[in-house]
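Run log // design_07
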C-alpha cells in the first residue's frame, strides 16, 4: 500500500497539469452519505424510492415530496471540508491542480479554498425559480416549508399567482385598452372628426350599419388612413417589444435590443440605397420596403457567417455591433453622396421612423410576422427562462443553447425586418418595454412576452398620436417621440426599483 501511495506522490510531484474528477465518496468523510453504500441514500426508507425521488419526472409531478427529501437529506449545513478537499485546494494554490470536476452538490470544494470547480450537477447553494429565474440561497431553502408556501413565497411570486388567477379578466382589460387606444388614434389629428362619425364609419365598413351620412374625405381619413396607421403602430410596437425580449434572452444582456445585432442598420442601408438611387421603380410604393427587407436579410447572413462555428453570446453581440456600424456607415456615405435635397430629407425622415404611409396592404404582413413571433416566444418561454440561469445550467437541463439562440436571432430578423421595411427605424421600444415589465412583474417569459407586446403596442400607438398632433399640420418622426418619452420613464423605473436580469430582488 505504501508503495502505491509513493507512486501516486511521484506522479503528483512530476505533474503540473492535473484535473481531479470526484463524486460522492469524496464527501463521505465529512458526514454526507453517498448513494449506494449500506447507509447511503438509496438504502433509506421513504414513501417513494430515493432514486425515484431524485428523477426529473418525479420532481415535476410531485414537487412537494421532492423538496421534503431535498431539505431533509441533501441540505447539510453541518458538513465541513475534509482532508481530501483541503489537499486539493492546496494543490491548486501550488499550481499543480488546474481544475476540480465534481458530481457533488455540497460546495465543500469551494469551502476548502478551491477556485476552479466545475459542478456537473449544480449546487444546493444555488437555487433558481424555474419560472422567473430568481435566485434563492441555501438558507432560504433550508428554512422554507412547503406547507407554509403562501406565507414564505416572495412578493413577485404572489403577483404572478394573482395574474394567473385573473388572466381572463386581465386579457379583457388589455383588449379594452387596445380598442380605446386605436379609437383615440383615429379620432385625434389635423382633421377633426366627431366620435359619432368615427364609430359609425367603422360600423359601416364592418357591415353592422347601413346608415351613411359622412363625407368622402371623412371616410378616407378614418378607414383608409388613420385605422391602418393605428393598427400598424400597435403591431410595430408589440413586435419591437417582443424582439427586445428575444434579444435580451439570447445574449443574456439587459442592454440588448432589436437593433444591436445590425439587422435594423442593414434594413436602413437597403432603404437608403433605394431612396437615393431611385431603383426598383417597377414595384412602386413597395420599393423602399423591399430594399429595407433585403438589407435586413443581408445583415442576418453576415451575422451567421461570422458566428456559424461559434456559440458564444458575447461574440454574437460584438459581431452585431460591428455589422451595425458597417451598415450605418454605408447609409451615411449614401446620404453624403446624394445630391437631391428632397431625397436626403426623405432618408432622414425614414431613418427616424414613421407609420404615415400605412395602408391595408401592410397591416396583414406585419400582423403575420408579429403574431408568429409572439406565438414562438410563448411556446418556448420555459427555454427562455432556462437561458437566464446561465449557459452551464441550461445545458444541464438539456437545452441546446446554440440552436435556440440562432432561432431567436432569425425570429428577430424576420419580425424587425418586416417592421423596419414599412415603418423605418423606431428606436427605444424594444429596449425599454422588457425592462419595464421585468421591473414590475419579474422575468418569467410567459408574462414578459405577453405584457411587453401589450405595453409596446399601446406606447407606440400613443407616440404616433403625439407625433401627429404636437405640431399640426406638420408631423414629427415617431422615433423622436419614443426617445423623448422612453428615456425619462426608463430612468424613473431604475431609480424607483432595482431588479436583477433573472427577476426582482
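design_07 sequence
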Amino acid at each position: 500500500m505504501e508503495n502505491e501511495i509513493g507512486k501516486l506522490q511521484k506522479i503528483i510531484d512530476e505533474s503540473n497539469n492535473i484535473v481531479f474528477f470526484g463524486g460522492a465518496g469524496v464527501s463521505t468523510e465529512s458526514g454526507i452519505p453517498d448513494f449506494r453504500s449500506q447507509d447511503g441514500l438509496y438504502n433509506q426508507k421513504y414513501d417513494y424510492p430515493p432514486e425515484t425521488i431524485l428523477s426529473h419526472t418525479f420532481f415535476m409531478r410531485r414537487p412537494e415530496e421532492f423538496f421534503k427529501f431535498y431539505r431533509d437529506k441533501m441540505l447539510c449545513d453541518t458538513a465541513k471540508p475534509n482532508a481530501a478537499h483541503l489537499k486539493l485546494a492546496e494543490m491548486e494554490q501550488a499550481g499543480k491542480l488546474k481544475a476540480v470536476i465534481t458530481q457533488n452538490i455540497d460546495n465543500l470544494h469551494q469551502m476548502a479554498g478551491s477556485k476552479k470547480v466545475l459542478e456537473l450537477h449544480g449546487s444546493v447553494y444555488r437555487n433558481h425559480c424555474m419560472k422567473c429565474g430568481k435566485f434563492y440561497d441555501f438558507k432560504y431553502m433550508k428554512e422554507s416549508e412547503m406547507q407554509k408556501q403562501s406565507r414564505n413565497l416572495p412578493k413577485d411570486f404572489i403577483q404572478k399567482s394573482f395574474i394567473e388567477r385573473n388572466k381572463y379578466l386581465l386579457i379583457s382589460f388589455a383588449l379594452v385598452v387596445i380598442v380605446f387606444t386605436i379609437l383615440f388614434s383615429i379620432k385625434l389629428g389635423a382633421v377633426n372628426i366627431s366620435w359619432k362619425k368615427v364609430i359609425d364609419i367603422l360600423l359601416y365598413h364592418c357591415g353592422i350599419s347601413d346608415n351613411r351620412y359622412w363625407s368622402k374625405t371623412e371616410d378616407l381619413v378614418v378607414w383608409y388612413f388613420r385605422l391602418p396607421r393605428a393598427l400598424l403602430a400597435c403591431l410595430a410596437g408589440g413586435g419591437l417589444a417582443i424582439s427586445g425580449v428575444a434579444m435580451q434572452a439570447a445574449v443574456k444582456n439587459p442592454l440588448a435590443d432589436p437593433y444591436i445585432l445590425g439587422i435594423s442598420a442593414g434594413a436602413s442601408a437597403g432603404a437608403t440605397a433605394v431612396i437615393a438611387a431611385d431603383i426598383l421603380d417597377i414595384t412602386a410604393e413597395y420599393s423602399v420596403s423591399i430594399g429595407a427587407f433585403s438589407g435586413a436579410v443581408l445583415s442576418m447572413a453576415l451575422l451567421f457567417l461570422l458566428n456559424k462555428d461559434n456559440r458564444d453570446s458575447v461574440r454574437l453581440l460584438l459581431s452585431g455591433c460591428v455589422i451595425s456600424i458597417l451598415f450605418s456607415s454605408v447609409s451615411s456615405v449614401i446620404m453624403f453622396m446624394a445630391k437631391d435635397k428632397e431625397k436626403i430629407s426623405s432618408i432622414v425622415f425614414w431613418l427616424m421612423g414613421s407609420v404615415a404611409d400605412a395602408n391595408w396592404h401592410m397591416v396583414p404582413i406585419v400582423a403575420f410576422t408579429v403574431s408568429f413571433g409572439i406565438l414562438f416566444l410563448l411556446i418556448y418561454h420555459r427555454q427562455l427562462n432556462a437561458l437566464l440561469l446561465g449557459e452551464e445550467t441550461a445545458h444541464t437541463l438539456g437545452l441546446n443553447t446554440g440552436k435556440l439562440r440562432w432561432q431567436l436571432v432569425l425570429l428577430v430578423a424576420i419580425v424587425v425586418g418586416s417592421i423596419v421595411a414599412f415603418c423605418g427605424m423606431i428606436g427605444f421600444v424594444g429596449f425599454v418595454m422588457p425592462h419595464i415589465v421585468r421591473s414590475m412583474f419579474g422575468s418569467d417569459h410567459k408574462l414578459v412576452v405577453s405584457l411587453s407586446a401589450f405595453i409596446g403596442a399601446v406606447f407606440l400607438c400613443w407616440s404616433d398620436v403625439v407625433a401627429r398632433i404636437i405640431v399640426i399640420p406638420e408631423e414629427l418622426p415617431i422615433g423622436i417621440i419614443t426617445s423623448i418619452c422612453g428615456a425619462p420613464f426608463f430612468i424613473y423605473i431604475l431609480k424607483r426599483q432595482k431588479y436583477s436580469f433573472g427577476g426582482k430582488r
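The mean pLDDT is 79.
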